[in-house]
Each structure stands twice: as C-alpha cells, then as structure tokens.
Fold this sequence. Notes:
Blueprint: H1 3-10, H2 16-25, H3 55-63, H4 72-86, H5 90-97, H6 105-118, H7 122-135, H8 141-147, H9 154-161, H10 166-177, H11 184-192, H12 195-202, H13 214-223, H14 226-230, H15 237-250, H16 266-275, H17 284-299, H18 311-323, H19 326-331, H20 339-351, E1 366-372, E2 381-387, E3 390-391, H21 392-396, H22 405-408, E4 421-427, H23 432-435, E5 437-445, E6 448-456, E7 470-473, H24 474-486, H25 493-507, H26 510-513, E8 517-524, E9 532-538, E10 554-560, H27 567-580, E11 588-591, H28 594-600
Antiparallel strand pairs: 1-2, 2-3, 4-5, 5-6, 6-7, 8-9, 9-10, 10-11
Helix pairs in contact: 3-4, 3-5, 4-6, 5-7, 6-7, 7-9, 8-9, 9-10, 10-13, 11-12, 13-15, 15-16, 15-17, 17-18, 17-20, 25-27
Amino acid sequence: xxxxxxxxxxxxxxxxxxxxxxxxxxxxxxxxxxxxxxxxxxxxxxxxxxxxxxxxxxxxxxxxxxxxxxxxxxxxxxxxxxxxxxxxxxxxxxxxxxxxxxxxxxxxxxxxxxxxxxxxxxxxxxxxxxxxxxxxxxxxxxxxxxxxxxxxxxxxxxxxxxxxxxxxxxxxxxxxxxxxxxxxxxxxxxxxxxxxxxxxxxxxxxxxxxxxxxxxxxxxxxxxxxxxxxxxxxxxxxxxxxxxxxxxxxxxxxxxxxxxxxxxxxxxxxxxxxxxxxxxxxxxxxxxxxxxxxxxxxxxxxxxxxxxxxxxxxxxxxxxxxxxxxxxxxxxxxxxxxxxxxxxxxxxxxxxxxxxxxxxxxxxxxxxxxxxxxxxxxxxxxxxxxxxxxxxxxxxxxxxxxxxxxxxxxxxxxxxxxxxxxxxxxxxxxxxxxxxxxxxxxxxxxxxxxxxxxxxxxxxxxxxxxxxxxxxxxxxxxxxxxxxxxxxxxxxxxxxxxxxxxxxxxxxxxxxxxxxxxxxxxxxxxxxxxxxxxxxxxxxxxxxxxxxxxxxxxxxxxxxxxxxxxxxxxxxxxxxxxxxxxxxxxxxxxxxxxxxxxxxxxxxxxxxx
Length: 609
C-alpha cells in the first residue's frame, strides 16, 4: 500500500453532514448552491447485488434489529456496516420504511439522528433521514436543511422537512432545482431571510412555462409563506395579484398531478385572494387570473380541496359578482393590438359564464364540459366530467387532463349503445406508456347507461380510489352527450376550423388517400393558437393499398394561418384545395428521417437531424 493510500485508509472519513456543512459555509454571503452539491459517496450509484424481488425484505431484515437498540452509537455503526455489507442502496430504504413498524419511537428517532448527523455512507444517511421523516422534531430542521443541499438527499430531506417546516423544505427544493437566472435572486432573498427583498423579488417571477413550472410555483408559495402574507392587513395589492396568478398556475396539469392539491394552504390562500379581489384594479391580467381560479373551482382539481360546506360555492358567487360587474366586464370588451392579449380578451368573453350558476345541491347526475385555460398559458382543451357535481378525472386519475373534445365528443365516443365500448377518458401528461391512462366501459342497459369496469393502466393505478359503476338515466344521458357534442362555445375560430376540417376528412377520406396520404390529426398550433394545423403521413402506394410498411415514409404538416375569413370558409377552402392539389406540394416535412426524405425526393428541414 502506498503512503497516500495508507493515510486515506487510516483517516476517518468525515460524515456527509459535515461535508455538506463545510461546503455551505464556504459559499459567499451564505447563498444556497445552484443545483446543490455532489455527494462524495459513490456507493449509491453502483449497481446493487440485491434481486429486485427480495430487496425490500433484505433491507427490512438489515434494519429491524437496530431500531430498538438503546446503544445508539453501536446501533448506528452496526446498521451502517450491515447495509453496506448486503448491498442496500438508497432507493431500497424508501421501500423498506414505507410501512415498517416503529415500536420504540424514541430509540428509532435517536438512531435516525445519529445516522443523519454522523453517517459516512449515502445509504446510512438516507436511512437516518427516512426515520426522521416519520419521527423528526424541530431540532432536526437545521441538519435536514444542510443535508438537503447534497443532491443525493434533496428529495428525502425535503420530504422529512415538510411536516416540520414546509417553508424550509420548499427553500431547499428551490435551491437545488431552480437554475434560471431570473429566479435565483428570489432564492437568495429567501435564504437571507430579508422579507422586503423577498416580496420585491416575488413580483419579478417570469411567467414563462419553460422557466417556472407548477411545482416551482407551489414551492415558491410555500417558501414565502404566501397564506400568511395574504392575511396581513393591509395586504399589498401587488402581492395579491401575484398570489392570484400563482394559484391559477398551480392548477395546471403540466406536472401530471395538479400542484394545487399538494399545496396545504390552498383553501386559506383561495379564501384570502377572493375576499380581497375587489382591491385589484380591473385589468385583463387580473381578470384572466380570477376567471382561471373560478373555472378550476367549478370543474377542475381545486373543486377537490377540503372545502368547508358551502365555501367553494360562496367563493364562486363572490367571483361571479365581481367579474360580472360593469368595470370588470368592460376589460374584455376592447380588442387589444397584442395578439396574445387579444386571445385572452376573447377567451374571457367566451368563458365568462362557464364557471357560474351551477349548484352542487341540484347538479345533474352527469355534466360534460370543455375547459380551455388562459391563452397566456397555452395548454390543451380538455373534456371534463362531473358526476354528481364532482370532477372525475382529477379525483380518479390525477396524472393528466381529460382527453380533447375532438377525440371524445366529435367522434361520438361517449354515445351509449347495447354493445359495450371502452373509452379512454384521460391520458398521463407524458404518455400512456409512461404513466398510464384512465378508461371506462360505456354501455346502454335498458333504461340506463352504465359507466363500469374502470381501468387505469401503468402507474395510473397507484394511490387512486377504486371507482364504482355509475348508472345514468338513459334519456338524460343522451341529452347531456348531445348537448356537449353541439356546444362549441368554448372554441375559437382556428379550433372551429380544425373541427370542421376533421369532420370533412372523416366524411371524405379520399381527399387525402388519393395522394398516398394517411390522415394523422388536425388541431391548432401550440405556439400560435390562431393557426390551424393538419398532419398527415405519406407512404408510397397507400392509395392502392400496396404500401411497403417497412419502406420510406414522411410526416407532413400543413399550417393554415388566420386570414380573417370565417372558420366555415377556411375549412371549405382547405377541403377544396385537397380535391385538386397534392398537399405534399405545399405542406412541410416534419417527421420521418433524412434518409427517407432523400429516397422520396423531398428536402429535409434545416437544423433537424
């Protein structure tokens, strides 16, 4: 053994807590590190020798003997040695502790403190933090806060901190996850404890979905203790406006599970914002934020918050009274020059009545609606289902919004016949293959229509309540589905054009097939909602049914910008053009491969691999 190796072997390793504390103390001005610190222990990144099927039991067997040992120092040393010996890794600890009985809580807490503060291996510290997640007390907060700055422990430290000090948990999360330069000054202000600087920075949060996601917004609300700030008298009107936007952004389903349901102070914050909403000047931005809150209270995830009896309805009544007052109605009556603001004004006019006038007491058994978010936050148009007044998809699935109305309503998928039909109501925001989807079987049964045999695919099945079979009066069901299918009040011109174009292609599929083109989808451009987009796939020989399935193919997209004509005129003109002109001559290649494009004689888009 060389002299340096011998010194390393003889020199005790510092605890991971001491390592993190030393790094943090070296930061200028006590700033929290961007993206946290790497852990010096690499063991957790190594492949475990444990078989996945027995890893949990092996981990439990390694931990259990030491949970009641009164000699904490001995127990900590031995459990660390044992965990390393059998090859337990950090993720095994979470599985093992999920429902592990802790009969001697004092001994288990002491062991957790010893491991988290003196542990030199990642798995030992992870076990310590895991025990404190169940048994921690206020004295553990500074240790957990420091350990959370090590990237390997951020998740478990935040989980352990949350029940003790949610604001500190949120700050640790923000410190490690927020990298954008526009947001870092807010993190620095929070870390410094300067309330005035924090509130000033709160007003500068960029309203860019690529920078600030729903979970980031929730963590910010928790870190600044937003609910407490809103209860101050007087309240800062700027903070009030920002709070309305923060709440509305938390209702987005870009993070799969709506963050509003994870925000413990959501009811308090809603109450405070609505109670003082009249202090806000009537502007387009304020109007859009408040209407977004109303729409979610009516049929979105916010409906599911733990409301005292009658409070949700009372808040909706207060918002209706304010937003329908002359000064606020006038806000959306003008036509702004800015395209995004113009879309928002028109959205407000279309949506102004949708959330209001619905009483839970006399709610129909089934209500089907299409909800569209504020155009400042481009997102999907989703179909929402309220059964006995409660939204089904966020309650039963919660990993993504309801499917598009074009999929569920335009094609008649929800119509009931004697033949059972399985219908996908919602898909995870990523994909079904990743996180699952929600299905139900629809069938007519005499004088009733039954929704039964609910099915969640993939991880969509975890943690959600089992759903019963729902029986609806058949005539009432048919009337509601017909009403929803024919209600296009939610749609804007480009979306109406898309629906008419899709209907025309369903009736006349030969308009595309004659050109060896297979219909893909039609909708509106994500970044420019006023543009209608048609996608199709070109395969040589498709028209004659002789295409080579393994041969070259290309995806094309045809964009139809708004030309100030009616949706009917635009759809008719597009269908007429398809009658006489090959769409491959004017649509753009968007998918396939460079090799396929060269083989088929089309240019491949510049800048695309």
